[in-house]
Specification:
By secondary structure, the chain is mainly alpha-helical. 84% of the residues lie in helices and 0% in strands. The N and C termini lie far apart (112 Å). The mean pLDDT is 85.
């Protein structure tokens, strides 16, 4: 078996492998395109989307309340610390 026959064999095997892969890809893509959408699944996904949106709004409200409470507590602590400052000492 000479080098030209080896090259011819590699080309032949490559062509067959390419054809098999192409046909397989075509079959898979056609099956995916023909798959019918399930209306029940679409409705469930839409309900899930609305639920996630509602949860996001509630989390935003909770975080806003947390920021407000933190601000009040820090202001109270600042006012308390300002009232407890030691009087300045004068040297004697």
């Amino acid at each position: 078996m000479g080098p030209s026959e080896a090259v011819l064999g590699v080309v032949f095997v490559s062509a067959i492998a390419y054809t098999i892969v192409s046909v397989t890809k075509l079959i898979v893509s056609r099956r995916a395109a023909h798959k019918l959408a399930d209306p029940a699944a679409d409705a469930r996904l839409e309900r899930l989307e609305h639920a996630v949106d509602a949860i996001a709004l509630e989390v935003e409200r909770i975080s806003e309340g947390q920021r407000f409470a933190t601000k009040l507590l820090s202001e109270q602590a600042r006012q308390k610390n300002a009232g407890e400052q030691l009087p300045s000492r004068t040297p004697t």
